[in-house]
Amino acid sequence: MQIITDRQELARLVTQWHRQGETIGVVPTMGSLHNGHLALVRALDGKVTRRIVTIYVNPIQFNNADDFRLYPRSPEADADLLRQTGIVDVLYTPDSQDMYPEHFSTQVTVSGADTILCGADRPGHFNGVTTIVTKLLMQTGADVAVFGEKDFQQLSIIRRMTEDLNFPVSVLSVPVVREADQLALSSRNRRLTAQQRRQAAQLPSLLLACIASMKHDQTEEDALATCRTKLTQAGFTVHYLELRSGETLKITAAADPSARLFVAASLEDIRLIDNMPLS
């Protein structure tokens, strides 16, 4: 596995691969890697001949300076983990001066879906996501890009962007990867204290209970209200808890075959997100 930090060096390698008829898959990450990220890497099995993992903690998608400062970083451990897979060709770790040089003034916006859920909770977040993903797709020359369904809104927005702008890339999704107690894997989980980690396990269990209530003829409004109350009692600050279409992200009913339950909730300053399909 090569570790490349220079954009021009990556461009030369990608050009060589394309001339040789290779196909390229990319897994964009912000590092602090875990088994969820490795599932994204393995999802490229049989789909491409070369794999690039990118690690870059993107400053313009953070609307909270402390969140950016405290975001977990483990570059050496990340590189070791990727080497151990034996299937990653390049780890690309650009620096901010290369990604956002002086006078950088362009952002990519996907209108509509960026103002709900995490977009409402974190203004400007998705402009930062779509801008950095655009740059990474162009720099890596990817034929396939892989994203996890834990960040389902992000996945939907990136799909919309690549379709609208005719990117020559296929977007592949991977289901949420969970711990034994069903907590969704997340880099931010590493910031949880032992007590908070026990509290965090209640998040998926309460979502499952909410879904079960809806399936047993409790109204969506009552089931969501009960779940919100129980989350608050468990120590969470609930940012949103909503039932939305997995196809359009619009508010929907439990009878919708694409319906998903979306949540963002914090334990002190650690923000956790999750989503689950009803069917």
TrEMBL record:
GO molecular function, one term: ligase activity
Residues annotated as binding ATP: 30-37, 148-151, 177, 185-188
Pathway recorded for this protein: Cofactor biosynthesis; (R)-pantothenate biosynthesis; (R)-pantothenate from (R)-pantoate and beta-alanine: step 1/1
Function per UniProt: Catalyzes the condensation of pantoate with beta-alanine in an ATP-dependent reaction via a pantoyl-adenylate intermediate.
Localization annotation: Cytoplasm
Misc: The reaction proceeds by a bi uni uni bi ping pong mechanism.
Coiled-coil spans in chain: none
Annotated family: Belongs to the pantothenate synthetase family.
The entry's keywords: ATP-binding, Cytoplasm, Ligase, Nucleotide-binding, Pantothenate biosynthesis
Enzyme Commission code(s) on record: 6.3.2.1
Species whose genome carries this gene: Acetobacter thailandicus
Binding site for beta-alanine: 61
Record field: catalytic activity: (R)-pantoate + beta-alanine + ATP = (R)-pantothenate + AMP + diphosphate + H(+)
Pfam families xrefs: Pantoate_ligase
Protein name per Swiss-Prot or TrEMBL: Pantothenate synthetase
Active site as annotated: 37
Keyword Nucleotide-binding carried by entry: yes
Assembly mode: Homodimer.
Binding site for (R)-pantoate: 61, 154
PANTHER family, alphabetized: CYTIDYLATE KINASE/PANTOATE-BETA-ALANINE LIGASE (PTHR21299), PANTOATE--BETA-ALANINE LIGASE (PTHR21299:SF1)
Taxonomic lineage: Bacteria, Pseudomonadati, Pseudomonadota, Alphaproteobacteria, Acetobacterales
